[in-house]
Amino acid sequence: MTPFEREQRMAEQMAKDGGYWIPMMQVFSLGVPGPSGNENDTYVADDAVYKVNNLMNSGGIVALLEKVLMHNALFPDTAYQFHGFAGFDGRTVQPILRQVRVANATPATQIMIDTYMAALGFEKTDGEGRFSNGSYLVWDVIPRNVLVDRDGDIFVVDAEIKRI
After folding, report:
1. β 136-139/146-149 pair status
2. Do the Cβ atoms of 55 and 39 come closer than 8 Å?
3. Which 3 state secondary structure label does DSSP give 102?
4. In DSSP terms, which residues pair with 161 in a beta bridge?
5. Strands, E, within 6-145: which ranges?
6. Reported pTM
7. Reading across the β-sheet that carries 93-100, which strands appear in turn?
8. Rounded Cα distance, 98 and 132, in Å
9. pLDDT in tens, 40-58
10. At 35, is the secondary structure helix, strand, or coil?
11. Which of 51, 29, 32 shows the shortest CA–CA distance to 97?
């Protein structure tokens, strides 16, 4: 058994024992299917967006949860909460993350994003949507991952982050 498979089996057992296992056929109970990306299927409820992560880009459950902690520290207005695990018994395990739904919002412009990140103490680096503050490198901070509400408040709902 590989370390990834061991992590999956342990997470599945823990979720089942703790009552936060959702069989894959029941994930639609989380909300209405929303936009999906390379690593997340989303389900939209009145007050939340649930992201079911396939772990394709994360390097495993622990690595994903470490990224969540960094996101929550940098962007507390869009902090993730762990909701549970979905999967097929004995096969796949996919973490479910809950994020507050930002209502009446549209994608922010790159200029808005650049200004917001500068206000948080980040400097632009070598590509669009890439920033560093000396402690963290944050990228993929582009309009599809950042929302602005009608009051002009900015919300980073998805970003790639690593500690420098």
Report:
1. unpaired
2. yes
3. coil
4. 138
5. 21-23, 32-33, 40-44, 48-53, 80-87, 93-100, 105-107, 123-124, 131-132, 136-139
6. 0.91
7. 21-23, 80-87, 93-100, 48-53, 40-44, 32-33
8. 26
9. 999 999 999 999 999 888 7
10. coil
11. 51
Q: Which residue has the tokens 């703790």?
A: 18
Q: Which of 86, 91, 79 is nearest to 155 (CA)?
A: 79
Question: What DSSP line would sit under 79-101, residue for residue?
Answer: -EEEEEEEE-TTS-EEEEEEEE-
pLDDT in tens, 58-81: 788 999 999 999 999 999 999 999
Classify strands 21-23 and 131-132 as parallel, antiparallel or unpaired. unpaired
Candidates 101, 100, 114, 116; CA nearest to 152 is 116
Round to whole Å and give the CA distance between 48 and 79.
11
In 3D, which of 162, 106, 102 has the Cα closest to residue 137?
162
Distance separating alpha carbons of residues 143 and 106, to the nearest angstrom: 9
Tokens 């097929």 belong to 88
Other C-beta atoms closer than 10 Å to the C-beta of 129 total: 21
Hey, CA dihedral for 71, 73, 75, 78, is it positive or negative? positive
